[in-house]
Amino acid sequence: MGYLFDPDNWRWLFSGNNFLFLLRGFWINVQIALVAMVLSLTIGLVLALLRVSTRRLVSKVAGLWVDVWRNLPLIFIILYLFLVMPESWRDAYERWVPGWFPTAFQTPFFLAAVIGLTLYNSAVIAEIMRAGIVSLERGQGEAAAAIGLRHWQAMRLVILPQGLRRMVPATVSQLITLNKDTTLVSIIGIQEVMRHARIVSATSGSPFVGTGVEAPLLQVFLAVGIMFVIVNLTLSRLSRRLELRERRRTGVQVEKVEGLEDQLALQTSLSDER
Amino acid sequence: MSELWEVLVRHFPEFRSGFLVTLQLVAVSFAIAIGVGLFVGALRVAPVRWIRWLGGLYVEFFRNVPLLVLLSIAYLGLRRAGIPIGPWVAATASLGLYTAAYVAETVRSGVFAVGKGQIDAGLALGFTYGRVLSQIVIPQAVRSVIPPLGSLIIAMIKNSAIIGAVFALADDLLKEARLIGSATFQYNEVFFWAAIGYLLLTVSVTFAIRAIERRLVVRR
Q1: CB contact under 8 A, A259 and B63
Q2: How many interchain CB pairs under 8 A, A with B?
Q3: Is residue A203 part of a domain?
Q4: Does A274 map to a domain?
Q5: Could you read off the pLDDT of A39-81 as tens digits, one per residue?
Q6: B36-69 residue pLDDT tens
Q7: Is the CB of A71 less than 8 angstroms away from the CB of B67?
Q8: Structurally, how many domains does chain A consist of?
Q9: Residue A129: inside a domain
Q10: How far is A5 from chain B (nearest CA, A)?
């Protein structure tokens, strides 16, 4: 405990550019998370719609795809893509990537990271959205059909607006998981906050390249952890606020969802079998 | 196609040992997660405000911090600080404490599902708080807690793969797959079988939980 809170072990935070350097690494994580979030939400919605398609074959194939990717470890997917990505893809990416992209995005392995994050998270989000769609009472779909809406019209105008709204808390907790999971890309060599942390700790104590103030690994990683806690807590508070406002506006009691990955999806998939 | 089978047959011992290590990692971490999670969950529903706050602090920290950061703190940070912590302890403690936060939340929501009225009724009858929890709340809460605990085990199986991927903490399934892959360069075949291994674990847990839930569930 003494070691943990000893002010001498925290002086690195305020010396030189250490803190700024860590923040800059963290910003890379945030950017990766944002790119992956946009892709996962879009592709997740498409997968969810395919999953509830009235064509059996389409829904079965989409179901298999979703079940495989969401049941594999994310780090497994990222590492696999990293190891087998063809040379031609890397070259194509390097030729395509615009110069104004952040440096960490310029390496071809960024492609493996983003594809991996998207494959996994779009599958999980698809399952959450599907759960939201099938959780609506059947009467909603039947009423839409009764007033003459086609399948896609009913989906777009009646089912999705209600179903997706219900799934906001579960989706946000998955986005928080995604945010945490961006640290995994450090394993394939992308320069983000985990790498920056090791660099701060390795160089800060040196009088030549650093500031001469020791930066113990324990404290550096703790600082990184606190950055994540702050951002993720803000995210979950924001979604809670949104949920409460929505409830006040519509008067609908939204079922509260605890921040458990897959929990809701699992429960709903159980209940629609009964 | 024959190459696919060849890889499995030739490297079966490695695949099997990796599979078993993953299983052990998950089993030990789950035991830690349940123990700590029940304790923190009890703090979260305690009748004293500052104890509840303490439980909340635990949950909010461990739930929002990346597992990789916890592993780095446990393995790199504590070692540098002079605490000789072994790779297995660092790995299982990190995964266990991380999941414990989710277990605690599950416990809390299970207790809330039982309802505060029953707690008050028990207290009014003169039970101590501990006896109210152990004899009235927990027997009922267990039922609603089973499905989310199942998805926590699944998340844990997936998260355990991080352990083998960094700092060489344990020779789990993913680590073995990488080793075989780098020796044979047959990454597609090797990762195919490793994926089958992980899917075997996660999918069988899904089915097991479904079966248990069908028995336990109370239809109201």
Answers
A1: yes
A2: 143
A3: yes
A4: no
A5: 999 999 999 999 988 889 999 999 999 999 999 999 999 999 9
A6: 999 999 898 888 899 999 999 999 999 999 999 9
A7: no
A8: 1
A9: yes
A10: 12
CA A194 – CA A28 distance, rounded (Å): 11
**Residues in chain A, total:** 274
Contact A184/B162, CB-based, under 8 Å? yes
CATH classification at residue A50: 1.10.3720.10
Q: Where are the domains of chain B?
A: 20-170
A9 inside domain: yes
Among the partner residues A68, A219, A228, nearest to B69 by beta-carbon distance: A228
Question: Shortest CB distance from A260 goes to which of B61, B148, B158?
Answer: B148
Range of the domain at A192: 2-267
User: What is the DSSP annotation of chain B?
Assistant: -HHHHHHHHHTHHHHHHHHHHHHHHHHHHHHHHHHHHHHHHHHHT-SSHHHHHHHHHHHHHHHHS-HHHHHHIIIIIHHHTT----HHHHHHHHHHHHHHHHHHHHHHHHHHHH-HHHHHHHHHTT--HHHIIIIIIHHHHHHHHHHHHHHHHHHHHHHHHHHHHSTT----HHHHHHHHHHHH--HHHHHHHHHHHHHHHHHHHHHHHHHHHHHHPPP-
Closest-CA residue of B relative to A232 is B64
**Which runs of consecutive H residues, i.e. helices, occur in A52-192?**
56-70, 74-84, 87-96, 103-106, 109-135, 138-146, 151-154, 160-166, 168-181
pLDDT digit string (tens) for A159-216? 888 888 888 888 998 999 999 999 999 999 889 999 999 998 888 777 777 777 888 8
Class of domain B20-170: mainly alpha
Cβ–Cβ below 8 Å for A221 and B72: yes
